[in-house]
């Protein structure tokens, strides 16, 4: 048989195999095989083929579809033989291995219970069995059964760890240092196999065994330096591994193992004299996992949920490290914690700039950049209440909001704008709901100063929003203006309330004969306070109306009209029944004069509102026609 015939036979076998595979897929998907249309019936037939094809009556396509029987692959029975081969070669093999391992385990247990094999023999059997299983697994890997080979390797590695644990902890056959070196050798060997075979599952097994080693060899003694040095070596090895392999999940395993060992040791052994050493190791662990997202290798085709692993790890690492330092340093000096939070903020700003300089186009990199920036801002926000007290916390948040607002508009970052607004809202809430000011001087006091800082930041928000043309900026600018005016009214009203509260307190409580004069004095001060409230609101409404006319701003004029409407309701519904005749007369006269003045301005149409309305109506009529 020459080469051309051999190639032809090979092609025929390949076509038959492909046909059988397509048939099996159709059977599994329950797809009915449709008869194929003869698409080439009108093509010219070569002379050689025309001679070999007997004459047949010509039929139409519809006749062929009706008369031609359904075609089936030539090798359809291969499905049953393939299933039979799988059962015989795979499933029975695995069940046999499991049954053999179970039988050997029962035999060893029976032998141990009857003292047929001593402690040294038991450990030796375990070590030999572990090594044998590892070697045996290579045979299956060579035949293409990688998953089964990795399962056997897991059994072998676990057997080696347990055998060494038994040799040290249960039978005292070897010292702890020897057991540690041997377990470290098992971990190193498993990691080397994982690298050589490009198997992430084996690397996971090696890492699990590495972090389990201190637990398996624990003697209940405090060996902080040895424990954390070993953990740091494991973390560095993991970091090096994920630098060359896209195995990001190993970072999560390594961080979880480090955190669990740290928490376990801290809750059992930590004391104040160990502050420096413990803080140093906590900083080393933090630094390793802080730079890990910057050096990890990203897989070419990564599941979306795993793409967020670096960002999640960066966030958790920052929070845990801050809590660790806070727990150790807070009892020493709380001021140090505040400066530490600011140092962390500076560190994460530096990292965010590094990430931004690398590649901002990648989605995962952009998320990581924004997350680092958010963490930095969060630490600044936390440092303010730790370091400052009372109203200085509120002022600090307002200053932070102002700085973030300036920076956000400098670099055109809506992300920072969001944090600026969050800090502003936080400060306003604390100012109105938490801060308790004790003032003795009207207007020129810390409460008014704090309100003025808030008003200044709200004014900056409105001003920056006016520089933009998008709808979101317009909404935020309007909300900032409303909040500014409301906050100014609240501040002035609080000053009025405090002034009259001091006046009322200054009136001494008399004895029973002078009770009538005491009541008259208190009532007079209350009437003056209510009149002052009305006067303030009317004056503020008039001021807003003037600003609205001068700036030709309907938005400001509407605020003025609403405030004046509230004042009208107060005067007619409350002041009429409460104020004395003199205050009542003044209230109505001032309110009437203010309303007439505003009405006169609108009637004179200084803003040309009527002309503008006529133009709008004319434009609408023209467009509709």
Describe the structure.
- Helix 5 runs antiparallel to helix 6, helix 8 (200-216) runs antiparallel to helix 9 (224-244) and helix 11 runs antiparallel to helix 13.
- Among the domains are: 92-209; 529-616.
- The chain is built from 23 helices and no strands.
- Mean pLDDT is 78; it is low at 32-77.
- The longest helix is centred in the first third of the chain and has 36 residues, at 78-113.
- The termini are far apart.
- The chain is 80% helix and 0% strand.
- The relative contact order is 0.03.
- The protein has helices at 3-29, 47-52, 61-67, 78-113, 119-142, 146-170, 176-197, 200-216, 224-244, 249-269, 275-295, 304-307, 309-329, 334-358, 363-387, 391-411, 414-433, 446-466, 471-506, 515-550, 554-578, 581-604, 609-624.
- The protein has 625 residues and is an all-alpha fold.
Derived structural class: mainly alpha
Classify the oligomer: single chain
Parts with pLDDT < 50 across at least 5 consecutive residues = 32-77
The pLDDT mean sits at 78
Helix amount:
over 70%
Compact overview of the structure:
By secondary structure, this protein is an all-alpha fold. It has helices at 3-29, 47-52, 61-67, 78-113, 119-142, 146-170, 176-197, 200-216, 224-244, 249-269, 275-295, 304-307, 309-329, 334-358, 363-387, 391-411, 414-433, 446-466, 471-506, 515-550, 554-578, 581-604, 609-624. Among the domains are: 92-209; 529-616.
Secondary-structure map:
Blueprint (H helix, E strand, L loop, with lengths): L2 H27 L17 H6 L8 H7 L10 H36 L5 H24 L3 H25 L5 H22 L2 H17 L7 H21 L4 H21 L5 H21 L8 H4 L1 H21 L4 H25 L4 H25 L3 H21 L2 H20 L12 H21 L4 H36 L8 H36 L3 H25 L2 H24 L4 H16 L1
Helix pairs in contact: 5-6, 6-7, 6-8, 7-8, 8-9, 8-10, 9-10, 9-11, 10-13, 11-13, 13-14, 13-15, 14-15, 15-16, 15-17, 16-17, 16-18, 17-18, 18-19, 19-20, 20-21, 20-22, 21-22
């Amino acid at each position: 048989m020459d080469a051309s015939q051999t190639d032809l036979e090979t092609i025929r076998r390949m076509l038959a195999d492909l046909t059988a595979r397509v048939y099996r897929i159709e059977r599994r998907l329950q797809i009915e095989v449709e008869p194929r249309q003869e698409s080439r019936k009108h093509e010219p037939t070569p002379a050689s083929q025309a001679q070999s094809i007997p004459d047949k009556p010509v039929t139409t396509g519809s006749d062929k579809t009706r008369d031609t029987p359904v075609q089936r692959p030539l090798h359809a029975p291969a499905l049953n033989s393939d299933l039979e081969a799988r059962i015989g070669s795979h499933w029975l093999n695995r069940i046999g291995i499991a049954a053999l391992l179970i039988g050997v385990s029962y035999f060893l247990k029976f032998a141990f219970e009857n003292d047929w094999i001593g402690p040294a023999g038991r450990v030796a059997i375990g070590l030999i069995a572990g090594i044998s299983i590892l070697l045996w697994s290579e045979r299956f890997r060579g035949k293409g059964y990688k998953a089964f080979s990795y399962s056997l390797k897991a059994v072998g590695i676990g057997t080696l760890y347990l055998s060494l644990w038994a040799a040290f902890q249960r039978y005292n056959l070897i010292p702890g240092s020897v057991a540690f070196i041997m377990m470290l050798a098992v971990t190193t060997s498993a990691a080397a196999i994982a690298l050589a075979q490009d198997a992430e599952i084996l690397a996971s097994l090696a890492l699990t065994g590495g972090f389990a080693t201190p637990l398996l060899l624990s003697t209940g003694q405090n060996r902080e330096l040895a424990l954390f040095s070993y953990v740091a070596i494991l973390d560095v090895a993991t970091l090096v591994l994920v630098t060359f392999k896209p195995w990001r999940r190993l970072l999560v395993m390594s961080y979880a193992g480090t955190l669990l060992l740290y928490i376990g040791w801290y809750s059992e052994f930590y004391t104040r004299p160990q502050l420096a050493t413990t803080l140093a190791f906590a900083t080393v662990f933090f630094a390793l996992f802080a730079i890990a997202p910057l050096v990890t290798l990203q897989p070419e085709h990564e599941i979306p949920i795993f793409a967020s692993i670096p960002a999640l790890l960066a966030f958790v690492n920052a929070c845990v490290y801050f809590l660790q330092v806070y727990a150790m340093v807070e009892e020493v000096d709380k001021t140090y914690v505040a400066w530490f939070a600011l140092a962390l903020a500076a560190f994460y700003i530096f990292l965010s700039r590094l990430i931004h300089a690398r590649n901002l186009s990648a989605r995962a990199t952009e998320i990581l950049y924004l997350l680092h920036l958010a963490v930095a801002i969060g630490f600044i926000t936390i440092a303010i209440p730790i370091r400052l007290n009372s109203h200085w916390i509120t002022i600090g948040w307002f200053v932070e909001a102002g700085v973030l607002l300036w920076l956000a508009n400098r670099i055109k970052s809506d992300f920072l704008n969001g944090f600026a607004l969050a800090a502003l809202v936080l400060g306003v809430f604390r100012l109105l709901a938490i801060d308790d000011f004790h003032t003795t001087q009207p207007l020129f006091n810390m409460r008014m100063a704090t309100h003025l800082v808030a008003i200044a930041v709200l004014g900056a928000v409105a001003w920056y929003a006016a520089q933009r043309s998008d709808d979101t900026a317009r909404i935020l600018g309007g909300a900032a203006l409303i909040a500014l005016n409301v906050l100014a009214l609240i501040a002035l009203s609080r000053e009025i309330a405090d002034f009259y509260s001091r006046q009322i307190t200054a009136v001494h409580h008399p004895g029973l004969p002078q009770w009538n004069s005491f009541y008259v004095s208190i009532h007079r001060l209350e009437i003056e306070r209510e009149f002052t409230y009305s006067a303030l609101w009317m004056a503020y409404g008039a001021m807003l109306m003037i600003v609205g006319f001068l700036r030709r701003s309907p938005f400001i004029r509407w605020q003025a009209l609403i405030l004046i409407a509230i004042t009208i309701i107060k005067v007619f519904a409350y002041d009429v029944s409460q104020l004395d005749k003199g205050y009542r007369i003044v209230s109505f006269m001032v309110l009437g004069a203010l309303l007439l003045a505003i009405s006169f301005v609108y009637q004179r149409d200084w803003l040309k509102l009527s002309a503008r309305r006529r133009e709008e109506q004319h434009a609408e009529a023209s467009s509709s026609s």
